[in-house]
Amino acid sequence: MLVVEDESVILLDIEHSLEEAGFEVVTSYRGEDAISVFDDDPERVLALITDIRLGDGTDGWQWPGT
Question: Maximum Cα–Cα distance for the chain, whole Å?
């Protein structure tokens, strides 16, 4: 599961909760980094949880080519 959140406290809380529920979690603070994680190993990302507003750059609504 890929979690994208630019606020560290929220990201850590989500990551901890998902790991306690048995999920393998990959985290990212920026949209661009999350896209790189997906591009490097798309089979690893079975689900995506993302904040919509991620500061400057790619946000939670964007994907390359859209």
Answer: 35
